[in-house]
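Subject: two folds for Thursday's group meeting

Dear M.,

Sorry for the delay on this. The cluster queue was jammed most of the week, so I only got both jobs back this morning. I'm pasting them in the order they finished. Each block is the input sequence followed by the predicted structure tokens. Could you check whether the formatting survives your parser before we put anything on slides? The first protein is the one we discussed after the seminar.
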Amino acid sequence: MTTLERSLWHPVALGHALGAAPQPVLLLGEELVLWRDASGTAHAWADQCPHRGARLSLGRLAADGQALECPYHGWQFGAGGQCTHIPAVPDFQPGPRHCARGFEAREAYGMVWVRLAPPAGAPDPLHDFPLFTAEAEPRLRKTTSGPYQVAASAPRIIENFLDMAHFGYVHEGWLGSRAHTQVPPYEVAATPHGLRATGCLAWQPRSSIHAEAGAQVEYSYEVTAPYMAVLTKQPEAGTTAIAGLWESIAMFVCPAGEEHSVVWTRMAMNDFDSPDARLIEFQNTIFGQDQPVLESQRPKRLPLALDAEAHCAADRLSTAYRRHLRQIGIRFGVIA
């Protein structure tokens, strides 16, 4: 792993799932504890008490709700990780060596995000996904599916998300058909933060939960960070129950370990009538079809050398993604 991976913002939990109880998570192989104080602020620390190394995630909030209490000796740690109370010696004033090790944590797009180290240059803002905020684009409803625990590397999962050639096989009858498997040429261009592919066409028997007939669907894809991508899709007119339907889906991948990831999809849907459960179940079905294939791939880490696996013209976006990861120096979840 390089400093780059540690300096990126990574999704680690659904915001609404983080309540008063501390929650353990794994990020880039590092064990963290998430907790939310009484004022609603989310915190992310190393899941290790500086006293005797017990897991802080086994602890609980202090009575005032402003500190996390270690389960072993009751040491309490407030905002910033400062030790505020040692019950065995209540008059002792703890110093810097008694602090819990903390990391930056923020909330956006329904998720808690963490980065383990500051960037080498100017601080990067949290990923800019205005479409996926609750307030932006009122015509689209925002829903999140997951988490999905996947025994695959984060880059393998993102590459699969960018791939249209598997639709007719992995998602037959849903996103593809064996009678329509050709992937026409499309364009790929670099962006300041990654890649963008446009003019991507796929025939789909059921392009979305609202589809009434098979349709030619136009996709665009954007890689916004090494372990993150967004697609936007628009079926041809007259093939969906909602006129002018278009929708966008972001895939947020937490690289928990080199070969283990946690995945969420953030949906911006042109549907305010279906219950959340119906929209999420559709995504569960689609990802459930992908997961066994992802977990079967060998090697589990994505090979970045372009001669490591065979390619064809339909793989233009995935090969560009591999080149991009190699160029920016990604090492976690890949074979360089």
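Second protein, same layout:
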Amino acid sequence: MIQDVLTIVRKEFMEILHQRGSRRAGWLNIVIVVGLLGIYMPITSGRTWVTNPIGLVSFAWLPLFLVMGIVADGFAGERERHTLETLLASRLSDSAILAGKITAAVLYAWGIAMVSTLIGGIVANFGSDKAPGFVFYPASWLAIMASFSLLLAILVATLGTLVSLRAGTVRQAYQQLSIGFMVLWFGFFIGVQLLPDTTKLWLSSRLETLNLVVVGIGVFAALVIADLALIAAARLRFQRAKLILD
């Protein structure tokens, strides 16, 4: 099983890096992301990039955007390129194919986020506000960021896989994912703006008294449960016979 999953992961990475035949394009995307978030932004921000947790928050959300394009291509791309039948006709089990595609997308996005984070922590020391000594992210911040970033990557990868299984083309899958996240994102902020002032004040006072540790544990647990539920849903949705007929 593990060997079969790794086979799919290697296949997916080759396709991601070659970007449908262009090795340069695949690596260029990685270089641009790492260069922007791992070098340019940290060096312009200086040591505050390391001492302020806002920098790490930006990296925690990075996999959300990196994963979408990969998972949209996962099954919809195979269907569009007429290679899905060949993949499904292989000896690989349904679980191995599904797990391999999700794992590849998660490792790609989460790996870039972590590499950018680590490089940024070093580069920030060479900013304009140089001072004696070397500073780096506190270990607790880094561990929390890595954990939440990984869980978010799994969440989006699994959700995107569910969409890709149903979509006829990569463009359709990507549009559905993008629109869905935009609706959630803007819907949240618009909903907050539409709340009565008394409700806003009450929420503000409640937020000031919240125990951040308890909130963090609650969010962590919610993400784990959501990830497991989506993985189970994807496993139920992945039916080889039906996909071949589609």
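Two things I noticed about the second structure. The CA atoms of residues 195 and 201 lie 10 Å apart. Residues 94-123 form the longest helix (30 residues).

Cheers,
T.
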